[in-house]
Amino acid sequence: MDSSVKPLKSIISNSQLTKKEDLVAEYILDNLTDACFITSTELANRLHVSNATIIRFSRKLGFAGYSDFQKYLRELCYESSLAISDDVTIPSERLKLSYDKVKDADLLNDNLKILEKNIRSISEKNTLDELNKTTNYIINARRVYIIGSRARTGLTDIMGLLLNMIIDHVVINSSNSFTPFDTLANCREDDCVIILSFPRYSHVDFTAAKMASEAKAKVIIITDKATAPIAQFADVLLLVSVDSNAFYNSYTPVLFLTELICSHINRATGIQNKEKLERINTYISDLDMY
Predict the structure, then answer these.
(1) Is-contact 121 240, C-beta < 8 A?
(2) Which of 100-114, 169-183, 254-268 bottoms out in mean pLDDT, i.e. has the lowest?
(3) Is the pLDDT at 82 greater than 80, yes or no?
(4) Which of 127, 172, 204, 241 has the fewest CB atoms within 10 Å, i.e. the most exposed one?
């Protein structure tokens, strides 16, 4: 099923529908684009139900009426048409597909819509329990390793910098001289390993997760879907969408998630590292390293 239908399916599954209303729901789920533009009378005639059935169906889903429901359907279709399918992962192929989407697009507003949807996916795909478990694993670890390859190294640097300010023993793998396997050589069961991995999923990230798992460390995987190859090694799996209408993944939502994790840890640790922050500030202030 198209990903754009999933929120609608959730609304429908939580509604008490009659058999005729179930027929309406099934048609709309299978013909979303068509349903965006036909009138309630046309829909009723196609399904051999009354116009009143269409109106009642819309209201049971929480809408004021069919026109209000149809506006929601159009927004769903519009949002899903902005991004390129995440099944296409090769940049050159994505570039070719993206051109038709962006050549006449309102880039600012279209990208804002995609970004909003991606950030919203964090609350839709993850639970507070998973965030709390992540916080506990990080705080209680002997060492916290943060691993990410290529475009993800920038994210690991930012996350590592923020975490290092509020906890100790943070290890970042962002040096060309060290592979993740050099970094994880001393990893053991009282450590925590955070790995960021997104399409096209790197075998390096996969093997690093395998190495951490075999060392019996707590493994936190940040990726886009539960079916990602690396997900099998996760003690905690945190999901975030990285959809875009370009040839690259959108990593702003991932940065938002890493900042959210740091906020949870900051709240849990309080002001215990106040002296550390003051000591850092003393030296960076001398050099204007802000």
Answers:
(1) yes
(2) 100-114
(3) no
(4) 127
Query: In whole angstroms, what is the distance from residue 188 CA to residue 254 CA?
Result: 27
Residue 173 backbone class (left: φ over 0; alpha: ψ -120 to 50; beta: rest): beta
Residues 54-70 have a mean pLDDT of 90
Q: Does 41 share its domain with 128? A: no
Same domain, 77 and 130: no
This prediction has a pTM of 0.67
Using CA atoms, how far apart are residues 245 and 102, in angstroms rounded to an integer?
A: 7
User: Do 136 and 252 fall into the same domain?
Assistant: yes
Res. 4 pLDDT band, cuts 50 70 90:
very low
* Cα–Cα distance measured from residue 101 to residue 111, given in angstroms and rounded to the nearest whole number: 11
Angle formed at CA 201 by CA 197 and CA 207, multiple of 5 degrees: 80
213 burial via Cβ count (<10 Å: 0-12, 13-18, 19+): middle
Q: Is 138 exposed, middle or buried (0-12, 13-18, 19+ CB in 10 A)?
A: buried
Return d(Cα 31, Cα 122) in angstroms, integer: 28
Amino acid at 108: L
117 occurs within a structural domain? no
239 DSSP β-pair partners: 223
Has residue 134 got a pLDDT over 80?
Answer: yes
CATH number of the CATH domain containing 260 = 3.40.50.10490
For residue 139, which of 147, 151, 128, 131 has the smallest C-alpha distance?
A: 131
Q: pLDDT tens-digit profile of 183-214?
A: 899 999 999 999 999 988 889 999 999 999 99
- Domain region containing 45: 3-82
| 165 in a structural domain | yes
Nearest to 2 by CA among 100, 90, 108, 73: 73
- How far, rounded to the nearest angstrom, does the alpha carbon of residue 158 sit from its chain's CA centroid? 18
